[in-house]
Amino acid sequence: MPRVFSGIQPSGELHIGNYLGAVQRWVALQDQHECFICIVDYHAITQEYDASLLETRTLDMATSLLAAGIDPDRTVLFVQSHVPEHTELCWVFMAVTPVGELERMTQFKDKSQRQESVLAGLMSYPVLQAADVLLYKADVVPVGEDQVQHVELMREIARKWNARYGQGFFPEPQALVGEAKRIVGLDGQAKMSKSLGNTIGLLDDPESIWQRLRPAKTDPARVTKNDPGTPEICNIYELHKYFSPPKTIEEVAQKCRTAGWGCLDCKRVLAENMAAALAPIRERAATLKAKPDLVREVLAQGAARAREVARETMQGVRERLGLLVPGEVAAPS
Ligand code: SF4
To answer: How far apart are CA 288 and CA 170, in angstroms?
Structure first.
């Protein structure tokens, strides 16, 4: 079975953007792959964050993932900092990664431009990503287009390390770029993202979904109910495609073009369909939230399974690096 590795930031509960864009895909991959899903808390600390919220956000993310269908019997779900070999291997990889390669990463260039003082952690983020994936010798990394460059760097790091320390030790993982699902936020412009405040929470109740959808941007040509619109340029129509049945999607397009209904009517139907589609996830999340120890236990078991693989990889790495094996402490006589 091919092995898959994916990481997600501990940003609290999932929103429908990361559910449709990534998590739904991971749930499907569980059937035919050996999956490792990691909540990457060490990545999260490379940017401004609130330390007092990190623990809660990590648990909320784990709860959301389990509620969304990640099955701990089939997927190793764990927290990055619970497996210290990630940062250990990152350091090993730093020793073979040219700084120039890191400086030309598009995401680094974007983010560093917005910072007064650029932190080394931001620059070395892709090296930690390489360690995350190669620690488990994963074959496949499901990514969006914006992460393909980072998978190429992982392959480059694997090649450089293998060339110096042992051909074939690390496989070169493949990027699995699925059908592009770039979920646009409620502002109708940018990718859905918590930091932009343009999201709908995956666990939101029906009333909250409606309150979020009601002011969402639509086709600006529809100033009044009588102005016809163009569904293809409206994000509400896009969202209907994920949550409404085919007949409704057709009806939306037709009523939009002919001004057969207003945008609020259209959004009301979307809100109802979305709330119904997400109801089972919301219910599973409520059950999990009532038993927080269960989520912690799943993460502990996941970390134990991950560490078995991570320890074996690091043992091979240490041997190839020529490090002294630590001696035993003699028992007092
Ligand atoms: S009717 Fe629906 S698809 Fe058309 S502009 Fe309004 S919200 Fe968008």
So the answer is: 37
Could you identify the residue written with the tokens 């953007």? 17
- Write down the number of H helices and E strands in the chain: 15, 5
Cβ atoms 218, 259 nearer than 8 A = no
The pLDDT tens digits for 278-302 are 999 999 999 999 998 999 999 999 9
Q: Report whether residue 229 contacts ligand 1, using a CB cutoff of 6 Å.
A: yes
Of residues 34 and 330, more confidence is placed in: 34
CA–CA dist 266, 86 (Å, integer): 47
d(CA 293, CA 281): 19
Q: Which residue has the tokens 């490379």?
A: 46
- Structure letter (DSSP) for residue 99: H
- Please tell me the number of Cα atoms within 13 Å of 276 on its side-chain side: 11
Please give the number of the atom of ligand 1 that sits closest to the Cα of 255: 1
The minimum-distance atom of ligand 1 relative to the CA of 231 is 3
User: What is the rounded distance in angstroms from the CA atom of residue 188 to the CA atom of residue 231?
Assistant: 12
Nearest to 30 by CA among 63, 10, 3: 3
pTM: 0.93
**Tens digit of each residue's pLDDT (9 = 90 or more) over 239-257:** 999 999 999 999 999 999 9
Output the pLDDT for position 54. 98
Cα of 148 from ligand 1 centre, angstroms: 33
Strands (E) in the chain, as ranges, are: 3-8, 34-39, 75-79, 140-143, 174-177
